[in-house]
Design a protein that fits this description.
Blueprint lengths: L1 H9 L1 H21 L13 H19 L3 E2 L3 E2 L2 H16 L5 H4 L2 H22 L2 H15 L3 H11 L3 H14 L1
Antiparallel strand pairs: 1-2
């Protein structure tokens, strides 16, 4: 849900870049909090990426509205955030007291979340997503083909043979 909404709105490059940098941000934050494994290397992982995407998704769902899961169920960031928190910290990590919560992992997740929220805010205030979607809409309109559109309408109306004939004649023409 998070990735689809963000990548559709931002495009592949920005989404991928934010994801990679978000993992780096959480890794730097965990290193800063002295959270090293037995080999002395910082922890980088999917939960840091998820925290980054949650921060971005929360801001995006507040300013753009909540996308719908499976086209039906609205999934605002304010709903997903507590669900993730409970799953990550209670179910997975087994944290049952507030003193256990303050850890390098929580600091790393907080940094990733903040990074995602800041990037999403900047994307919104610069109008990047709206410009990108407008450009994509213009390209779609420019690339439209009347024969293809008639074939699609025929197919939707149950006239498959007519749609096939239209497409076959267009294919031969090009």
């Amino acid at each position: 849900i998070l990735g689809i909404a963000l990548e559709d709105g931002w495009g592949h490059l920005l989404f991928g870049g934010v994801s990679i940098v978000g993992i780096g941000v959480t890794g730097i934050a965990s290193t800063s909090a002295n959270y090293f494994d037995a080999t002395g290397y910082p922890w980088f992982g999917a939960s840091g990426l998820l925290a980054t995407l949650l921060g971005a998704y929360l801001i995006r769902s507040l300013v753009k509205g909540a996308p719908r899961a499976f086209g039906i169920i609205p999934m605002p960031g304010m709903l997903l955030l507590p669900v993730w928190f409970v799953v990550e910290y209670v179910a997975v990590r087994g944290i049952d007291s507030p003193s256990e919560f303050i850890s390098a992992t929580a600091i790393a997740h907080g940094a990733g979340f903040a990074f995602g929220a800041v990037v999403s805010s900047v994307v919104h205030f610069l109008g990047f997503e709206d410009k990108r979607l407008d450009r994509a809409k213009e390209e779609t309109e420019v690339l439209s083909n009347p024969t293809l559109e008639r074939a699609m309408i025929a197919k939707e109306q149950g006239r498959s043979e007519q749609a096939y004939d239209l497409l076959r004649s267009e294919f031969r023409r090009t």
